[in-house]
Amino acid sequence: MSAETWKFPKEFWLANFMELCERAAYYGFFIVLTLFLTDIVGFSDKETGVVAGVFYALLYLLPPFVGAFCDKIGFRYGMIVAFALLTVGYTLLGIFHGKLAVIIILGILMLGGSFIKPLITGTVAKTTNEANRARAYSLFYWVVNLGAFGGKTVVPYVRQGMGLEYVNFFSAGMSLLALLFAIFMFKNVEGEAKSDKTIGQVFTSLKAIFLSPRLMALTLIVAGFWIIQQQMYATMPKYVIRLIGDSAKPEWLANVNPFVVVLFVVPVTQLMKRFAAVSSMLVGMVLMPFSAFAMASSQWLESGFMGLHPVTVMMILGIAIQGLAECFISPRFLEYFSFQAPKGEEGVYLGFSHLHSFFSALAGFILSGFLLDAYCPDPKTLPAGISAAEKAAVYANAHSIWYVFMAIGFISAVALFIFKTVTDRTPEQAVTPAKA
Predict the structure, then answer these.
(1) CA gap 353, 340 in Å, rounded
(2) What is the SS3 assignment for 72?
(3) Looking at domain 10-424, which of 2.40.30.170, 1.20.1250.20, 3.40.50.720, 2.30.30.40 is its CATH number?
(4) CB 352 within 8 A of CB 206
(5) DSSP 90-140
(6) CB under 8 Å to 269, separation ≥6 — which residues?
(7) CA–CA separation, 219 vs 215, rounded Å?
(8) Which residue, 233, 180, 182, 205, is CA-closest to 67?
(9) Domain boundaries, the chain
(10) Using one digit for the tens of pLDDT, what is the confidence trace for 258-299?
(11) How far apart are CA 347 and CA 66, in angstroms?
(12) pLDDT above 70 for 198
């Protein structure tokens, strides 16, 4: 494979297609998850924040363990298991809406989804080399966002035309399509060897990662970026619908993010390829406080733009800034971690590369539930017969939610600058598994 071409093995392209299907299913479901948990299942805002936060956090905690398991059984069988669990989980979630049943079904989805990160990113790592890996990951991230864009484009028609619970059946169909490709077309990557590591050795390898100050510090700092990014799913859907009305389409607003990423991720990666990965991430991190500030600024607009509500206008601007920041951060973060992986342990290390989402989900979703309850509460919790003026007063400070996330973004940018300054002065040391 040459760095001057876009030629990759068939398995690389198949993995990207299955990723496209899975992302359409996942983001179509996830953009309305908090609405589903509140409006259909009956959880409060605070309860929804905890349930969604724990679901999302565990979804990203399991990949290091699942990645090791996939190294042992082979990526093809791992993909079959993953997409089978997702197909069953989404289908059941469309049928059963009791609180306990939903929590159990989310566990099935969590287990199936935890396979995807190490499987797909591991396949990218195994089918590329050092010369073309940055380009491969930029293409992979382009596909991820294309799938996300497609899923969130379809979902408003399903939600408003058929009902919120039917979104789950759309996601089940996309997962089934990926499952069929995994069964009938995908083969294990050439040269892929099954791991003979014991569970104890796997934990020892993971311990080496957790004991690396550099990797853990970078993971926690980048979690600040994702705390803000995840508000597209934790806060934004309810915020927009409660301030604008039921006709609002938060799914389309969220689509601004993948649209921007699809347009800019490849050129940004090419532009920044001469710079170190952390330098590229720092550019993105500096942009994030401006994203949250834009979202908080709608109250200063007397009218919208081109017939759009002021909240819509500033959400579009804020989410677009997030998308641009993501182009600088995410592909280079994956690249950084891929080069830390010893041969045969790509699944473990690339699974761990998403651990930032474990920390950010717990913090971001739970914080969102409390902020929504305080500044932008569920209309069903307001007193009966409340006047329009009284209701307007209740939501007058809703924008204050975004000031909290602006502060988080600023602190994260400063922390990454300090991290870069310190690590530039010390030689980079690759992480190696400790001996059992």
Answers:
(1) 10
(2) helix
(3) 1.20.1250.20
(4) yes
(5) HHHHHH---HHHHHHHHHHHHHHHHHHHHHHHHHHHHT--TTTHHHHHHHH
(6) 134, 135, 137, 138, 327, 331, 332
(7) 6
(8) 205
(9) 10-424
(10) 889 878 888 998 888 888 888 999 999 999 999 999 999 988
(11) 8
(12) no
Closest listed residue to residue 221, CA positions, set 63, 23, 411, 17: 411
3-state SS assignment for residue 197: coil
3-state secondary structure of 362: helix
- Provide the b/e sequence for 252-269 (b: ≥16 CB within 10 Å): bbbbbbbbbbbebbbebb
Residue in the block written with tokens 């609002």: 248
Report d(CA 361, CA 73) in Å as an integer.
29
Q: Are residues 6 and 135 in contact, defined by beta-carbon separation less than 8 angstroms? A: yes
- State the pLDDT at residue 2: 44
State the average pLDDT for the chain: 85
Joined together, the tokens standing for residue 426 give 């010390």
Residue type for position 230: Q
Query: Does pLDDT of 6 surpass 90?
Result: no
The stretch 75-86 carries a mean pLDDT of 90
Band (pLDDT 50/70/90 cuts) for residue 223 is: very high
Q: What is the pLDDT of residues 360-377, one digit of tens each?
A: 999 999 999 999 999 999
